[in-house]
Write the C-alpha cells for this entry.
Amino acid sequence: EAGVTQFPSHSVIEKGQTVTLRCDPISGHDNLYWYRRVMGKEIKFLLHFVKESKQDESGMPNNRFLAERTGGTYSTLKVQPAELEDSGVYFCASSPNRAGEQYFGPGTRLTVT
Amino acid sequence: GQSLEQPSEVTAVEGAIVQINCTYQTSGFYGLSWYQQHDGGAPTFLSYNALDGLEETGRFSSFLSRSDSYGYLLLQELQMKDSASYFCAGGYILTGGGNKLTFGTGTQLKVEL
C-alpha cells in the first residue's frame, strides 16, 4: 500500500511569491490533515479535511494560506504571498478514522528568502 | 491551551529498556499517540491509546492513565537504529467538529553500545 506522498520535497521562493504544496493521502483515507514545523519548534496543526469538506482550519495562521481538497482525494496548500516566517516543513497526514492513527507524508521543506 | 510535556533527552545502552513519559492537558482529549522521527523526516506512527492500560506492539509498548493525565512509551531490547526523536501527540476534539494532534516537544533518544 502506498503511503502519503507530498510534492515538492523542497521549495525555495522569494518573499511575496506564491507556492502551492500538494498532498496525496493513502487511498481510502477520508481524513486529511496539514501540519507544519517552523523554526525547529513543535509540529503544529493547520487544518483537517473530511473528504472534500474542511472540518476545522483553526490552525491556519492567516488568510495568506488556502487549502483545498477537490473531489476528496488529493489536497493542495497555497501560500500567497509568502513571508519569511512561513519557512518550515509542511507535513500532510491521512487517517481512515478520527482516532490518533495518522500517517504522515515526508513533508515539504519551504524556504522563503 | 493544549500542551504536552516530555523529557528532552534520554540515553540508554543497546539491549536495555527505556521509558519516555508524557503528560498532557485534558480539555478535549480523546487519546494519546506516539511517533518516531529520524533526522527531521516524516513522523512514523508507533502506537495509540484511547483507553487506559497497556498497548503492546512488538518491542514497543504504550501506556495511558487518564486519571493521571499521563502516558509513556516503553522501548525494549534497544537497538542502535532506535536512536531517534520520539513524540507523544494528544488527540483533541475541536469545537468545529474536527480533530487534531497536538505534539509534544519531543524526546531525543540516544542508544549507545
In short: The mean pLDDT of chain B is 94. The interface with chain A takes residues 30-33, 35, 40-45, 48-50, 87, 89, 91, 94-106 of chain B (CB under 8 Å). The CA atoms of residues 35 and 46 of chain B lie 5 Å apart.
